[in-house]
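[step 3/7] fold_predict: job queued, chain A
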Amino acid sequence: MSIAISVLTFLGALGLFLYGMTVMSDNLQKIAGDSLRSLLNRMTSNPFKGILTGIGMTVIMNASAATIVMAVSFVNAGLLSLAGAISIIMGANIGTTLTAWIISLLGFNFSIKDFCLPIIAFAIPMIMTKKYKAHGSFLIGFALIFYGLAIMQNMVPDFSKPEYNYLMETVGGMSSYGYLSILLFVLIGSVVTFCIQSSTAMMAVTLVMCAKGLISFEMACALCLGENIGTTITANIAAMVANRTAKRAARAHFLFNFTGVVWILILFYPVTWLIRQFTMLIGFSDPAVNAMSVPVALACFHSFFNIANSAVLVWFIPFMIKILYKLVPDTDDEEEFRLKYIKQGMISTGEIALEPAKKEIEVFSRRVVRMFEFIPQMFLMQDAKQFAKLAERTQKYEEITDRMEVEIAHYLTAASENGLSAKASKEVEAMLKIVDNLESIGDSCYQLSLAIDTKNKQHISFSQHMNENVDRMFETVKMSLDKMNANLSEVYSSVTGDEAEKLENNINTLRDNLRLEHTEAIKNNEYSYQTGIIYINLIAQLEKLGDYVINVTEAITGKKN
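[step 4/7] structure written:
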């Protein structure tokens, strides 16, 4: 087999490993469903609970990156404090050591490759069923992980053969510079982990190299430290266009891992000596002598690094937060139209993607309510310059609502493509209806501002009674908007919509009464026909706005609208 084919085969096996990890992670989230989501929602400021939750989530999904991205997303959505996110990140780093233990204890002690195809055969019928499709996919992902690992292991040649003496001498030369070699391997581990975007995959490659005797135990530990730095880069790149709190959470991951690597490097030789003694204590041979013991020893080192680092730094979370605020200071120059919780580049995982969308919809709702508050002011405003400024501001809000609808809808559509539970899919459908109606409320507000502008330009004056009627309509619609806002801030399943329906009926009744009164007034020539057109147009537009408002609540409750 040529070198090129060998390299491609190895990369293909690595890709199989990574794909298996992705399939496992995605389907575990589907299996866990709402329990996974509610678990993260129960986060508190207690750092030890946060660490335990981070461990649990990472063990469930077998992917620390997914847990960390969830934590960053929840901070971004305002559902989790920065301190809580840091504690979850600490737990995620501990939980990710499970992979090293699985591979070291299962992947090298017996040929799990022999069981991969039977597992897939067992999983295929499950995939054919609707109920157990996610379970079957999870089993296939599990099989692919170890199938890819077995291929990688087989692709690494026997370096004890004479033809590999030059390669062994080269690697040995890289390992012969003492402490400088350790730093070199830390750098290599960081760069390679960043390139393949998976510390788990890099750990698998490291374990395979150890099992084949390509690198020593100390150099494997140095690679492991580098992997812990490299795995933080992805989240920081993703958070580059996120809000400040999400940036701080991503920086926290880097700060935590980098600080741990620094103090472990200072104590590197005493720590590796302790790990060697512990490995022999639990029944294995010295990893510095027997390469077959290196995978277990490296799993011990990986666990020690993350557990010890968390045990030390958990007491310094308040100090870390102060550093993070200096690294990512507050600014006041955010553009008004930018979404607050949904950011391009932020990776959302499974059903957790709905949380930022829900918070963004709440912001959207408050924005359109604020926009509506401009209308009564414009209706009573006498100063032409102030009116022009407020009209311009209303138009700007209308443009913002258009963009918000498009961006939130695009985000929700992308989230739905990742495969959601039936309940979550219904929530996405409801949210899409909500943003559509919120944008329509913004359009109605803008049309109301144009109607008032037309009234002013035509020098049309309403009687005191007509002004009072319009004010009553304003107040009734505002009550309906406030209730809509309150409903959107609740858990959707707890909203009944009864009060919102009563307010909608009040709007319709008032509209009907004012329409009958208007018809009589026109007959009696109480005001001109042109004045009546402007007047009844305002009433009709307000009632139409009320229809959009009740549509939002009906989308929340699942009623047809």
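[step 5/7] annotate
The chain has two domains: 3-327, 350-557.
The chain has a mean pLDDT of 80.
exit 0
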